[in-house]
Every structure is written in structure tokens, then in C-alpha cells.
């Protein structure tokens, strides 16, 4: 049972120390044990019925042993001394060339972080979670007769982690996330259209004291119905205004990934070697902040045991720093920035974003729109993708409108926008004062997904290519 | 070669290797706990993976992964509950079963809900498991990654680096047992090479990737993967933004496979029954150019995703989805089939952590007669697309609208011309299928649920400068 009482550590310090010593014995220069215990549940209502509730549990340890430039990695679901030992052997097999030394490992005082949630989701009756689904479904369906289908999802997860390494680090964290989403299909003369709205926070069931599921249902439903009247999106280069909240995806793709030290180190980023340069107008300040309490991408420690930080990436237009994990930072003789993350104990950590956001500016959203003669206003963004080496990036629009003579006019159909990161940053020419965080996201990199948040005020990019079909 | 500096263990794998029979036993144990009026399905998987990544002549990382898990589905009185665990301890299995039972209490009853019984069809005997792969010394796998990286780096002086060069393989086994008569297992092996090159000229960087897949080490072709990665990067050097307009677009096999995967996603009966497919109600109608035959055949051992049984333990089979441009059928699992009063098409897809969904498993367009070169020679003004991005954000599989980032080469008077990038291609899935006016003879199986073949689309909107 989850309780507020002191939780037992996942593995005891003695076993961790002995296992780390063993990794060094086998020739490792550095070794790390990452332990994870994950529990979660989800519930789905679709096509008018509660289809299923799913509960899941997984736990295990991932072990890294580093010699020179080589990392050996193995994981096990067996958390007994024997299981850990076998995984250490496997991971250390890559380290055989190193000098075997009888070094002792003494772990320091544990940096122990307890969850600050008010209501542990696992303590809440399942019937209460199901009632939220039913409530949202009814509201979404009752909004408009065009609503043909509704799907509602609830999810909660608890992820306890513990990290120990041969530098003496010992840290643990207890991460609880709760999310809710509504997706609607509207049917009309123009075919089918979709609308979606989701929320997710690193908090417990108190999420539902803060948000109104009926409001989420109304937004999703309205979005789908509005799009029934959508015209084909325009095609070609034009001015693009991005609304508050979801615009963070633009920064996540346009420059966020390019500021990850692992890609920079491999010259696979257009931002390599550009620290100290002006990369945007002085009104642009971009921050990645893993400490933003309650946000989807926040945590106390990253998956290498280092505290989350607030890192200023672009300060008044100047590229100030990249994001770092421990491996890359250690090589450079600098501290980690707390961005070493992994999907699970079965994965190696790498540099990842947390909550990435653009600071508010001084214009009002109305000023920005009314001073735009023609272009596209993107109210909700979908996902995106970037090639960090070339800087070319795309992001999807899932609710957007034409701007004609300074006013929002017709809704437009879904599509992608494409641009080049460094150029898009330079082309930002207005930022408003209406900052908001966006929807919860999952960022994918090298096959691993991790929860991330993002946020922006309304902003304008002078020129991006809108990928529609209109002539 | 750097290899000699290492002394690899023969196998990095933990000695505790599971046998197939153990997976079936675990499933049987769970199912034996079924109470009266209760249907239980247990699915268990076990996989071992090795991945070696080379960087600048060294092994950057070597991963030995062993994963397993179990999923338990319980159906009673038309309600379904599910739970899963990433461990096989008896304590966890007991808790997982009890969670699944508890979860079903909250589901809405549904007369079609149920666990499938056997349909009597025998699974195909497929040559998709190669015992030897598990015995190959790690040293050999590491050597392939290093060689792949070296080969990619040295092919062209404009290659300034290799972002990653990976060897990876997997041996996976799965079992499904129910108290309704299903007792099935399957095992597959696969290995692959992938490499991403970085080419630079005049301060501009371009990337390209190459791959090779197979079921045994001998199937892998380092040279082909390296040449592809280098060609794809170097031919993009100097790329400009194309003008906006409507063009004939040639999709290369890597790109067409990704689009076919999306088309496949709209042809599953769950989407159709729930009103989320643009093909709902169109069975028997012409939905594509008459030259299109679209077949999902997981019993074809050439396919990298071939499997003899589906996620519910039923035999997989060959399903013709589009025949001469007409929509022939959708793919079904047992639930969607019961709802439509027909038989499952053996198309349940799932991992151990989810209930069975429905989907294509090895989709391919029947190849045509002409080579890609012949097809290109017939295009007077167009674009060859070699890469797309943002498929997850720019394709709406419900409305059919799509718009994706793209890169490739212009085609002028039947010849490949200058490289182009930072543009999108857009249309609707419906229109694109009707606009296909050329199918290549170059069918390629890829590490995904669809095969690729060169496709010529008569008209797509290109958005660029």
C-alpha cells in the first residue's frame, strides 16, 4: 500500500556498495546502479462504454559500467543480490580491458526526496476514476449533435527511483503523475474531424480539484465541430502566430533538441560551437526548468541522481548554455545540469529536456494579431520532429485559423509547418504577455519516451512554411 | 582494428535463460486459477536483445537486455479487466490476476466481449527463428558495428562523422494460453544494422541513413547500409527550398512504407466500428487506383515482422485488403469479428502490457513491372522524396488529411536534378491512393509492419518557398 510513512529504500546501501565495488573490480572506471519500481493504472471509456481498466507493475535495475569511451549496460528484473550481481557481470563485460582494482565504494548521505502529492492516486477508489470518464463522455456528447464518437482516458503512475554510483552519489525520488484526456470525432458534410484536449501534472488525484473535466470535454468537442467548417490550409511561406501554451513544441523542436550536449558533442547540431552568440532577438529568453513544481516534466532528481535545475538556454537572445547529462558533463569537467533521463530501468540515460518555456514579452496578443495582415494563427499544436544536424523541423497544427487583415477568420484543416531552427529563432518578431503552459507531452529520442512540459506566450514568427493544400 | 583491445565475453547474457516451455507453463498456471463462469487469457513474452553502438572507432555502448512480462485478461459476464507485470515472481502473478479481476468490475458489460476460442486453423510453419543468432559471440556483433562505422566514415571525404552506427538483434518468444482452448506460442529472431552519416560541404551539414536487416548475421550487408547512408547524405548537400506548387511526387520505398503503415491503420475494423476510419462503409467500392493490390500477409517469411500466431494466439493468415483498387476487407481481432458476425482475420496485435488491438502485421503493395529508374524517367517535372518527418503530427488518420516534412531531389525531364529540403508534401490519404500512377518492381521489407516499393503519385501539393 502507498502510505505517507517512510518508504523502504528499493535496495539497501550495503548491497549497492558491494555491487559497485564489484563493477570496479572488473575494470570499470565508473559504475552506476539505477533502480526503479513503477506502478500505474489507466482507464479508457470509448464508444460509450468503459472498455477496460488496466493495472501495471514493473521493477528492476539498470547497470552502467564505463571504461574509457565505452559504456557497458545491462538490466535485470531480479532485484535480489544474485540478480544484481549477474547484471553487473554483464555490464562489466565491456570493461574487461580496464585495470582491475580493489577500490572501495563509500556512498554518501542519501539525497532522499519524498513525494509532495496530497492524494495518492492508488488510494482513490477505482469507481471515482471511472466516474470522471463517464462525466466527461456525457458532456462531450451533449455539446453538439455532430459529435459522433468520444474517447476518454485517465491515467496515473507512481515511479520510485534510486540511483547510486561509484563517485559516492546516493539519491532517490518518488514521482507521481496523473493525466486525463478527451478525444472527439465530429461528422459532417465535409467528412470526419477530430478534437482533443488533455491535461497532465506531476501531482496526485488533487489534479481533479484543480481542473474541471467538463471543461476539458467541452474544449475537445468544440475543437472537432469547429474543424468541420475548416478550409484547406494555405501552402507556402507566411507569417505564423502561435497561441499561448502549446507553442512550446515549436521551441522544443526548433532549438531544444539542438541544445542537448550529446548531439552537440557529435557535431549533430546546428547549434554546436555557438555558445555566447546572439541566436535570436533580445526579447527571446528560453528556459528549461525541471524544478517547476507540478509540471509534467518535473522531478526532484534526474535519472542519474542529480537534482533538477532551472537552466537558462537563451538569455535575451544570447545562447548561454547547452543541457547536460552526467556522462557528458563529467568528460568536460563541469557539473551536470540535471537533464540525464531515461524511459525506464531498461534504458541508458541521455540528455533530455524537462519543462521548456519561453518567457513572456510585453505585447498583448491582440496587438500581435491585429498587426498581422495575412498568415496563420495556430491555437493548438500537435507533436513535432527535428533533424538537429540540419536544423529542419516540423510541427503539427491541430487547431488553426487564417489571419486576414488583422483578424482570425476561417478555421483550417490539420497539417504540418516546416522551418529551420536557427532561422525561425531569428524570425521571431513579437512576444506577448499571456504566458501559459501547454498540454503534457511525451518526447521521443533514440527510441525512448519521457514526459516533458512546455509553455509559451502568444508569439509571432515572421516566416514559416505552412504545409497545406490550398492553391 | 580497435576490436583487439577488448576481450569480450562469449555472451553478455545473464545465464538464467528461459525456455519456451516455461512461458507456456507460466501461462498455464495462471489460467488454471480460473473460477466458474470466468474466462482467463494469459500472455507472456520473453526477449533478449544485444545492441552495439560504434562511434569514432570505439564501441560507445554495448547493451545486453533481457525483458519479460506477463499480461492477464479476465472476462466475466461481458466485462473485461486487465493487468500486467514485468516480473514472473509468484507473488506478482497472484497480485496481477487479482488486479485484473478487480478491474473488470468497473467495465461496462458488452455482449461481444470475450476471450477467443480456437478457430481450428493451424499456424503456418515459418522459418523465422534462427537458433544460431543466440550463439554468435558478442565479439562478432561488436566487430560488425565497428566495421559499419568505419565503412560509412571512409566512403566519401565529405563525410565528417557518423552520428551512430548500430548492430542490434533480438530473440523473442511469446505464449498465449486461455481456458477457452488457445494454447499457442511463437518465436522469432531478427538482426539489423543502422547507420546515420553526417556530410558537410561549405559549412552546411546533411544527414543520411542506411540499414540492413535479416534473421542471421550472414543476411546483413554492411556495404549496402554504408553506401545508402553516404549517398543519402551527400546527395542532399547544397539542397534548396523548392517552389510551392502541385507536382508529381515519387516516394522511395522507405517513405512509401511509412505511408502504407498509416493506410493500414485506417483499415482495421476497430476504427471502422467506432466511426474513426475514413473507409467506414466503403467495402466493395473503388478506394484506390485500379493498379493497387494491398495485402497483409504475416505468414510471408520475407517480412521482418512475420509471425505464425497473432496476439490472441490465433493463426495468422494472408488478408487481401484492397484488390485492383477495390476495398475488399478490413482486418479483425476476435472482438471486432464477433461484432460483425464473422471470423477473426488473425490480426490481433499487442504487447504483454495491453489488451489485443487490431492491426496489419506485414503489409505490402504488390510490386509493378518497372524499375525506379524507369518510373523516374517518365516524370517531366517532379520531386523524388527520400525522407519524411512529422508523420505523427501531420497525418490525421480520421479525416485523411496529411502534410509531412520532406526532403529529396527534383526530377526534371526524367532525370534526377538538384536536392531540395525544408518543404512539405500534402494531400489526403483518399486522394493519394487514387492518384498512384506508377508502382515500382523494387519491393523492400523494412524493420516495420509494412514493406516499401517506389510509388509515383500523380499530384501532391509541395509547400516550399
Can you walk me through this structure?
The complex is a heterodimer of chains A (471) and B (465). With 471 residues, chain A is an alpha+beta fold. Chain A has two domains: 13-228, 2-Layer Sandwich (PmbA/TldD fold), CATH 3.30.2290.10; 235-467, no CATH class. Helix content of chain A is 20%, strand content 40%. Chain A has helices at 13-25, 81-92, 126-143, 207-210, 213-228, 248-256, 261-265, 326-332, 365-370, 421-426; strands at residues 30-46, 49-67, 70-76, 111-112, 147-165, 170-188, 191-201, 235-242, 286-289, 310-315, 318-319, 340-341, 350-351, 355-358, 374-386, 392-404, 407-412, 415-420, 428-431, 436-437, 441-445, 448-456, 459-467. In chain A, a hairpin with an 8-residue loop joins β12 (340-341) and β13 (350-351). The model of chain A is unreliable at 1-5 (pLDDT under 50). Chain B is an alpha+beta fold and 465 residues long. Chain B folds into two domains: 2-6 and 19-232, PmbA/TldD fold (2-Layer Sandwich), CATH 3.30.2290.10; 239-465, no CATH class. Chain B has eleven helices and 20 strands. In chain B, β9 and β10 (326-327) form a beta hairpin. In chain B, α4 (138-154) packs parallel to α5 (222-234). Chain B is globular, with a radius of gyration of 24 Å. The model of chain B is unreliable at 1-17 (pLDDT under 50). Classes of the chains: A alpha+beta (471), B alpha+beta (465). At the A-B interface, β2, β3, α2, α3 and β7 of A face β2, β3, α2, β4 and β6 of B. β3 of chain A pairs parallel with β2 (58-76) of chain B, so a sheet runs across the interface.
What proportion of the residues of chain B is helical, as a percent range? 10-25%
Q: Indicate the proportion of strand residues of chain A.
A: 35-45%
Count of the domains of chain A = 2
Distance from N terminus to C terminus of chain A (CA atoms, Å) equals 60 Å
How many separate helices of chain B? 11
Give average pLDDT of chain A, whole number. 94
Oligomer state equals heterodimer
Amino acid at each position: 500500500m502507498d502510505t505517507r510513512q517512510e518508504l523502504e529504500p528499493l535496495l539497501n546501501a550495503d548491497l549497492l556498495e558491494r555491487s559497485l565495488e564489484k563493477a570496479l573490480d572488473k575494470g570499470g572506471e565508473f559504475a552506476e546502479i539505477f533502480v526503479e519500481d513503477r506502478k500505474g493504472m489507466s482507464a479508457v471509456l470509448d464508444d460509450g462504454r468503459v472498455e477496460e481498466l488496466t493495472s501495471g507493475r514493473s521493477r528492476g535495475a539498470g547497470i552502467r559500467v564505463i571504461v574509457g569511451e565505452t559504456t557497458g549496460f545491462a538490466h535485470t528484473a531480479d532485484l535480489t543480490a544474485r540478480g544484481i550481481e549477474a547484471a553487473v557481470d554483464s555490464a562489466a563485460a565491456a570493461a574487461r580491458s580496464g585495470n582491475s582494482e580493489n577500490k572501495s565504494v563509500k556512498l554518501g548521505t542519501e539525497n532522499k526526496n519524498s513525494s509532495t502529492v496530497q492524494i495518492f492516486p492508488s488510494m482513490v477508489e477505482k469507481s471515482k476514476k471511472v466516474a470522471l470518464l463517464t462525466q466527461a463522455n456525457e458532456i462531450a456528447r451533449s455539446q453538439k449533435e455532430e459529435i459522433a464518437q468520444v474517447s476518454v482516458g485517465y491515467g496515473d503512475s507512481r515511479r520510485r527511483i534510486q540511483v547510486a554510483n561509484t563517485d559516492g552519489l546516493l539519491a532517490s525520488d518518488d514521482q507521481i503523475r496523473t493525466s486525463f484526456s478527451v478525444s472527439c470525432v465530429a461528422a459532417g458534410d465535409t467528412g470526419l474531424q477530430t478534437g482533443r484536449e488533455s491535461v497532465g501534472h506531476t501531482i496526485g488525484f488533487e489534479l481533479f480539484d484543480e481542473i474541471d473535466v467538463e471543461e476539458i470535454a467541452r474544449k475537445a468537442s468544440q475543437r472537432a465541430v469547429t474543424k468541420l467548417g475548416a478550409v484547406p490550409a494555405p501552402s507556402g511561406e507566411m507569417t505564423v502566430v502561435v497561441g499561448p501554451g502549446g507553442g512550446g513544441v515549436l521551441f522544443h523542436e526548433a532549438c531544444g533538441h539542438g541544445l542537448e550536449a550529446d548531439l552537440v558533442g557529435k557535431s549533430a547540431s546546428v547549434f554546436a560551437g555557438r555558445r555566447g552568440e546572439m541566436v535570436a532577438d533580445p526579447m527571446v529568453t528560453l528556459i528549461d526548468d525541471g524544478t517547476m513544481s507540478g509540471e509534467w516534466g518535473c522531478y526532484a532528481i534526474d535519472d542519474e541522481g542529480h537534482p533538477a535545475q532551472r537552466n537558462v538556454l537563451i538569455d535575451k537572445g544570447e545562447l548561454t548554455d547547452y543541457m547536460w547529462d552526467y556522462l557528458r558533463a563529467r568528460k568536460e569537467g563541469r557539473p551536470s545540469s540535471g537533464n540525464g533521463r531515461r524511459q525506464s530501468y531498461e534504458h541508458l540515460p541521455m540528455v533530455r529536456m524537462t519543462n521548456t518555456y519561453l518567457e513572456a514579452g510585453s505585447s498583448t496578443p491582440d496587438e500581435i494579431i491585429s498587426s498581422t495582415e495575412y498568415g496563420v494563427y495556430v491555437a493548438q499544436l500537435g507533436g513535432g520532429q527535428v533533424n538537429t544536424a540540419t536544423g529542419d523541423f516540423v510541427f503539427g497544427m491541430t487547431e488553426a485559423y487564417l489571419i486576414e487583415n488583422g483578424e482570425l477568420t476561417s478555421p483550417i484543416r490539420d497539417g504540418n509547418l516546416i522551418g529551420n531552427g536557427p532561422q525561425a529563432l531569428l524570425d521571431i518578431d513579437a512576444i506577448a504577455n499571456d504566458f501559459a503552459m501547454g498540454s503534457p507531452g511525451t518526447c521521443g529520442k533514440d527510441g525512448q519516451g519521457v514526459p516533458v512540459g512546455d509553455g509559451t506566450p502568444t508569439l509571432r514568427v515572421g516566416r514559416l512554411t505552412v504545409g497545406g493544400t490550398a492553391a | 582494428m580497435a576490436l583487439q583491445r577488448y576481450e569480450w565475453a562469449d555472451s553478455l547474457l545473464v545465464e538464467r535463460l528461459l525456455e519456451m516451455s516455461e512461458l507456456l507453463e507460466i501461462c498455464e498456471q495462471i489460467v488454471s486459477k480460473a473460477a466458474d463462469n470466468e474466462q482467463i487469457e494469459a500472455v507472456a513474452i520473453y526477449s533478449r536483445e544485444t545492441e552495439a553502438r560504434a562511434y569514432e572507432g570505439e564501441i560507445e555502448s554495448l547493451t545486453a537486455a533481457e525483458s519479460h512480462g506477463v499480461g492477464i485478461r479476465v472476462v466475466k459476464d461481458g466485462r473485461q479487466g486487465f493487468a500486467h507485470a514485468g516480473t514472473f515472481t509468484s507473488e506478482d502473478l497472484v497480485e496481477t490476476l487479482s488486479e485484473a479481476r478487480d478491474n473488470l468490475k468497473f467495465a461496462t458489460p458488452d455482449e461481444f466481449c470475450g476471450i477467443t476460442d480456437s478457430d481450428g486453423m493451424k499456424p503456418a510453419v515459418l522459418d523465422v527463428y534462427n537458433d544460431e543468432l543466440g550463439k554468435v559471440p558478442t565479439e562478432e556483433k561488436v566487430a560488425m558495428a565497428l566495421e559499419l562505422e568505419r565503412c560509412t566514415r571512409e566512403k566519401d571525404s565529405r563525410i565528417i562523422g557518423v552520428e551512430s552506427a548500430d548492430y542490434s538483434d533480438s530473440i523473442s518468444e511469446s505464449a498465449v494460453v486461455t481456458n477457452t482452448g488457445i494454447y499457442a506460442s511463437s518465436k522469432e529472431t531478427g538482426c539489423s544494422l543502422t547507420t546515420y552519416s553526417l556530410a558537410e560541404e561549405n559549412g552546411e551539414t546533411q544527414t543520411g541513413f542506411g540499414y540492413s536487416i535479416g534473421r542471421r548475421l550472414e543476411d546483413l550487408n554492411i556495404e549496402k547500409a554504408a553506401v545508402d547512408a553516404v549517398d543519402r547524405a551527400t546527395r542532399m548537400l547544397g539542397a534548396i527550398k523548392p517552389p510551392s506548387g502541385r507536382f508529381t511526387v515519387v516516394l522511395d520505398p522507405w517513405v512509401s512504407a511509412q505511408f502504407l503503415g498509416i493506410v493500414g491503420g485506417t483499415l482495421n475494423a476497430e476504427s471502422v466500428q467506432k466511426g474513426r476510419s475514413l473507409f467506414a462503409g466503403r467495402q466493395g467500392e473503388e478506394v484506390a487506383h485500379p493498379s493497387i493490390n494491398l495485402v497483409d500477409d504475416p505468414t510471408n517469411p520475407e517480412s521482418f515482422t512475420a509471425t505464425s500466431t497473432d496476439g490472441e494466439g490465433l493463426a495468422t493468415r494472408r488478408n487481401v485488403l484492397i484488390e485492383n483498387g477495390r476495398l475488399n476487407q478490413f482486418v479483425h481481432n476476435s472482438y471486432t469479428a464477433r461484432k460483425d458476425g464473422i471470423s477473426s482475420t488473425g490480426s490481433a496485435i499487442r504487447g504483454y502490457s495491453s489488451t489485443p488491438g487490431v492491426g496489419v502485421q506485414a503489409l505490402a503493395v504488390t510490386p509493378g513491372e518497372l524499375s525506379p529508374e524507369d518510373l523516374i524517367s517518365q516524370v517531366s517535372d517532379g520531386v523524388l522524396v527520400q525522407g519524411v518527418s512529422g508523420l505523427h503530427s501531420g497525418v490525421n488518420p480520421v479525416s485523411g488529411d496529411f502534410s509531412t516534412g520532406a526532403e529529396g531531389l527534383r526530377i526534371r525531364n526524367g532525370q534526377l536534378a538538384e536536392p531540395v529540403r525544408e518543404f512539405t508534401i500534402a494531400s489526403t490519404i483518399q486522394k493519394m491512393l487514387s492518384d498512384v500512377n506508377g508502382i515500382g518492381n523494387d519491393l523492400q521489407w523494412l524493420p516495420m509492419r509494412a514493406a516499401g516499393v517506389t510509388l509515383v503519385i500523380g499530384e501532391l501539393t509541395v509547400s516550399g518557398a
